[in-house]
TrEMBL record:
All copies of domain HTH cro/C1-type, residue ranges: 18-73
The organism's place on the tree of life at top rank: Bacteria
The name this protein goes by in its record: Helix-turn-helix domain-containing protein
Upper taxonomic lineage: Bacteria, Bacillati, Actinomycetota, Actinomycetes, Kitasatosporales
CDD domains: HTH_XRE
Species the sequence originates in: Streptomyces sporangiiformans
InterPro entries: Cro/C1-type_HTH, DUF5753, Lambda_DNA-bd_dom_sf
PROSITE patterns: HTH_CROC1
Length: 285
């Protein structure tokens, strides 16, 4: 799906505009909810783009905010209509992290730190199958295959000829030492990781065990940035039953600074490739 009609991003932009109109009116989300006889949580979900926005929602909110310019109302209504279109990932059925996929599909750059496994965009098929099978022991084979297919489809952003995703991945040594699948699976995965790291728009760095404690010990996270200046950066933290999306400038800044410390403490790109190659040799013995 073309980025300019990405439903997830459209919802975010529309939500941001609705929040701006509310703030211009000097109203709180609670006051708006009372006027429309809905819950405050609904207003919050509409504004943060986590919920589909109907044209009726837009009409009602514009009425509360006393928006008199019909061109603005019509533009917002069209955005609401576009935001209800389906992205490519919807063809795979119910995907728990569909919001993240929508953001990743439209992102210009992605910075990810993972202390336990190789990031999804850099996984081989066999590694992904073994990882998902181990992580979801009660999942049916069909569900595992669906997740693998989605993961491989996401990787097309890396090979996009027109606008490839700029990917920067910092991995803890544990992500490379953890034997996912058998030795052959790991050898192929590490060789693939080395190959991908040589692409001009992909950087892979490793933090070895000898580095000791570092800012990433609190866990995995990713920072997504978008080509349109109107779209704020997002910090994504994956959870078991729900995911966390941080968009406040202060939160994004804290995670960005932490990421800079991770990059500074990690081996550089060339050293990391050599480090990965040596671990692959260990698996081959």
């Amino acid at each position: 799906m073309a980025s300019n009609v990405n439903p997830t991003v459209r919802r975010r932009r529309l939500g941001q505009e609705l929040r701006r109109l509310r703030e211009l009116k000097g109203m709180t989300a609670e006051e708006v909810a009372e006027r429309l006889l809905v819950s405050q949580s609904k207003i919050s979900r509409l504004e943060n783009g986590r919920r589909s926005i109907s044209q009726r929602d837009v009409r009602d909110l514009c009425g509360v905010y006393e928006v008199e310019d019909h061109r603005i109302v019509e533009s917002l209504m069209q955005m609401a209509k576009d935001s209800r279109q389906q992205g490519w990932w919807h063809s795979f059925g119910d995907i728990p992290y569909s919001v993240y996929i929508g953001l990743e599909t439209d992102a210009a750059s992605l910075r990810v730190y993972d202390p336990l496994v190789v990031p999804g965009l850099l996984q081989t098929r066999s590694y992904a199958e073994a990882l998902i099978t181990g992580a979801l022991p009660e999942a049916a084979p069909g569900d595992i295959d669906k997740r693998v297919q989605v993961r491989l489809r996401r990787q097309e952003r890396i090979s996009d000829q027109e606008a490839p995703l700029r990917l920067w991945a910092v991995l803890d040594e544990a992500a490379l030492r953890r034997a996912v699948g058998n030795e052959q699976v790991m050898i192929q995965q590490l060789e693939h990781l080395t190959e991908m790291s040589q692409l001009p728009h992909v950087t892979v760095q490793v933090i070895p065990f000898t580095m000791g404690a570092h800012p990433g010990v609190s866990g995995q996270y990713a920072i997504l940035e978008f080509p349109d200046a109107a779209d704020s950066s997002v910090v994504y933290i994956e959870g078991v039953t729900s995911d966390l999306y941080l968009e406040k400038a202060n939160d994004v800044q804290k995670y960005s600074v932490m990421y800079e410390h991770l990059r500074a403490q990690a081996l550089n790109a060339d050293q990391s490739r050599e480090f990965i190659a040596n671990i692959a040799k260990d698996y081959a013995r």
